[in-house]
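Quick one before lunch.
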Amino acid sequence: MTAASTTSVSLDVRDVHLAFGPNRVLRGVDLSVPRGATACVIGPSGSGKSTLLRTINRLIEPDRGDVLLDGRSVRGDDPDALRQRVGMVFQQFNLFPHMSVLRNVTLALRRLRKLGEDEADALARAQLELVGLAGKANSRPAQLSGGQQQRVAIARALALRPEVMLFDEATSALDPELVKGVLGVMADLSAAGMTMVVVTHEMGFARQVADTVAFMDRGVVLEAGPPEAVFERAEHPRLRRFLDQVL
Ligand SMILES: Nc1ncnc2c1ncn2[C@@H]1O[C@H](COP(=O)(O)OP(=O)(O)OP(=O)(O)O)[C@@H](O)[C@H]1O
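Model of the adenosine-5'-triphosphate complex:
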């Protein structure tokens, strides 16, 4: 995973607001992730965690506020270019079922980075090897376990050499025995120095891997800090109640 470490940047979310009609889902979110750090976002269902991630890579335009990479606003950037810089992995792996694993990884390399076939194949194979799937390049997604499919999705995002990675409940759709392998890949990536925002229900992962844990509630980050502070010395009663329910 070392290739990923060289290019990561800091991420700042500043006062981001977003409403779906009358539903004010994000009500002034602030989050700072230094270069190479991992922020885990925890919080109750419907608090706006997924929506926050989608505003970071502009799958959704926020109504107000800004997102900065290395101190520079991404507003006005070409969305395709931004999504190469900010990779995202979803709960449902979103692989193309009719394409081989290799083609799933090379597609964006060829279309977005305009690489030739040989170069794209070589890069994709190297990335698949990093996630432990060198032998599966010619398989179809349906021939893989959910955990393997998710690792393909991670390889696909990493092949674009992102500077930030976003994970939206990447292990929530997996059978319990497959969760560890995917979390292991994510922990390796974090250790290699990738800047990451990880929305997760895996409190063990947050405790061990995060530099910052941010608790979201009703569209704001209510409390954030190092894992030991958030998990052992939570200040806000709503965070304490949430932790009582999930730990
Ligand atoms: N595209 C959309 N259109 C309208 N409402 C939406 C849309 N996406 C999300 N919402 C609403 O925004 C709110 C926050 O949803 P979001 O998925 O961000 O929460 P979450 O914290 O990630 O929840 P969970 O942990 O259950 O995934 C919910 O009320 C949801 O119904």
